[in-house]
Amino acid sequence: MEKQVKQADVEKFMRLEQRKRNRILNAAMKEFRYGYKKASTDAIVKDAGISKGLLYHYFGSKEQLYAFLVRYVNDFITCGYFDMLNEGNADILEMFWQTALLKKDLIDQHPHWYDFSNGIYVHSSDAPAVQATLLAQEQQAAYDEFCARCDLSLFRDDIDAEKAISIIGVTMDDLINSECHDDYEQFLNTLRGYLDIFRTCFYKEVKD
Amino acid sequence: MEKQVKQADVEKFMRLEQRKRNRILNAAMKEFRYGYKKASTDAIVKDAGISKGLLYHYFGSKEQLYAFLVRYVNDFITCGYFDMLNEGNADILEMFWQTALLKKDLIDQHPHWYDFSNGIYVHSSDAPAVQATLLAQEQQAAYDEFCARCDLSLFRDDIDAEKAISIIGVTMDDLINSECHDDYEQFLNTLRGYLDIFRTCFYKEVKD
Amino acid sequence: MEKQVKQADVEKFMRLEQRKRNRILNAAMKEFRYGYKKASTDAIVKDAGISKGLLYHYFGSKEQLYAFLVRYVNDFITCGYFDMLNEGNADILEMFWQTALLKKDLIDQHPHWYDFSNGIYVHSSDAPAVQATLLAQEQQAAYDEFCARCDLSLFRDDIDAEKAISIIGVTMDDLINSECHDDYEQFLNTLRGYLDIFRTCFYKEVKD
Amino acid sequence: MEKQVKQADVEKFMRLEQRKRNRILNAAMKEFRYGYKKASTDAIVKDAGISKGLLYHYFGSKEQLYAFLVRYVNDFITCGYFDMLNEGNADILEMFWQTALLKKDLIDQHPHWYDFSNGIYVHSSDAPAVQATLLAQEQQAAYDEFCARCDLSLFRDDIDAEKAISIIGVTMDDLINSECHDDYEQFLNTLRGYLDIFRTCFYKEVKD
DNA sequence: GATGAATGAGGGTTCATTCAT
DNA sequence: AATGAATGAACCCTCATTCAT
Hints:
Four copies of one chain form a homotetramer.
Chain A: H1 10-14, H2 18-32, H3 41-48, H4 52-59, H5 62-86, H6 92-109, H7 111-122, H8 129-148, H9 161-178, H10 184-202
The structure holds a DNA duplex.
């Protein structure tokens, strides 16, 4: 017997006036920032100032709400990436640096979205399993495009550039997820330190 | 008055015949692999083929059970590490290679323990707070010892060796966690590829 | 950090239509009549015809429910006493007579409330400790006021009036609790018999 | 479906050597002193130094054990009363005074038995309902015999002697149950105070 | 559209009782 | 006779979900 998916009307939610929509979005992401199970639908509706029924009218279930949020922030962030990518930066280290700056913007404008976004991975499979898979594919696609853009000729000839990119990627992820983000300047310094190492070790020596 | 810790008789559990003990251990770790809250004691006893009462006779509470498991796998793994460390290997890349082999063993012999072990950090935030802290200290100490052993003079002088070690560490973790482990030979090859990059890029050039 | 008291919304309960409110009140007091521990919340909701969740929505916990009931009956009864007291009767035997009539009313209209009310003291020791203390103080105050009203000069000079009042009190309580209450006239006769003894023996002789 | 009464072999228990028997008796009464439900069979066997199985071998169930204890102390105490009664004391006030002294003995020699004995009434219907009824009948019989012995001619002619005895009885009960028994001398003083009132008010004036 | 009172399955925990040894 | 590991029904409580208004 398959779990029946109840009615949901996300489109109606998207047609809401932006202020109300964001109030709900903020409340939900804030509550989900520590993982799926810890979030309480009661807390969400209370914080958003709407009724229980309305939340379920829009999203059908807690699970679908979570799925929606994951997709929403992902699209929102990806959107920013693409704008950046379209500016055609070919140096992958520079791209990661820009990415970090973008995150800074997100933190300032939508702190809860950022927390939530980080939490998705940190509390990964606390969430319904399906979710992770779907998102992973999407992120992989985005990341692939991200990589396709970058200029592999910058890398030393005696190493596997793809593996090198992989190393840079996981290091950046780890840095962003685990780092205490209270002091942003500190964070940028650390980040710069790592990027320097990569430039020194993985890139060809620049001859002047 | 502190939260009263109910009677628990872990020693009695340790005196169980190994087969039964492992059945319980497996069931519990399997159930906890997605985090503390998601795990159901009902599911554990059902899977282990014991009664609810017996589980609580041994461990007192879900929280104490979790604490025990965390410590158990940690000791189990640390044990292997220490044996290796005592062989006094100073090349950190060689140490990571050995570590990977050990983890591979763990995955093969106790897949659930391995999943659980990974989950401890991944789902850290939904576990009883105390646990994470205690373990973090211990692991930090173990890792520090691990690092203290290694010969930093192997690294290039123009990079921050600590950051370099960090990069190597997260890359190894990512590799072990994400890699599809069906084909062991394939895995070892990939692993070797990454270690080669690190040796080539982070270590001093060897002059012959 | 004190034991956290979970949300409770007793006001919402008080706003319920009287029939439903009394159905819950009756079920709860009936179930608690043999003490705190023996009462089962399952039995209460089943008897009241409501769901588990609703009971906890109103009262937060078994303990808070019990606390509410204790206060409720106490206020309910005290209310009646005070009306009587305000009529300013100074003869304590007359006051006990009135009290007995009031209790009789309570028994007829809310038998479970009466049983519960008696049980509070009888099974005091298995209730959450705080409760008993708070109520005891309040009841002591009410009883003190009750006694302060009464004219001690009616008592013989050669006996301790306070002890005499105590004797009258426990006798009345015993009478009301143990007497088979099927035949009200019979009960009143017995009661009158005892009051006569007290008047004859404890009061000064009336000279005409 | 009637609750099935499991096998019990109290006779075997009675045939135990006195030291072991008393160790069990003490442990059980001590644990039951706060009522039936609060007592834990685990605590009893631990305190008595016997196994769970043995306790159930002798008594069959917690309920039967409790029943046995109630009967046991009752018989033990009644036994003392009868010895006293056989000495043929006809003054009921004197009889109550002697009773109080007997209780003092019990307190000294078997403090737990005394606590348990008091608890039976204090925590009355916390226990299985049947118990109270059975005991009540027995106690009533004992009390009736107690009263039958007493010399009614001591009472004033203008009051109902039976009712007067009843008053004395409930006052004594209340005193014994509620009084803080830490200071025995204090208790005896209070007791004497009440007995004096009864003698002064209920008995005929003694002409010299 | 919008509400929030009401639901009940499921969770963690306890403990009297049983039974293989 | 004696043990104590093992059981499982029953307990208090939570919370995602529903539905009458």
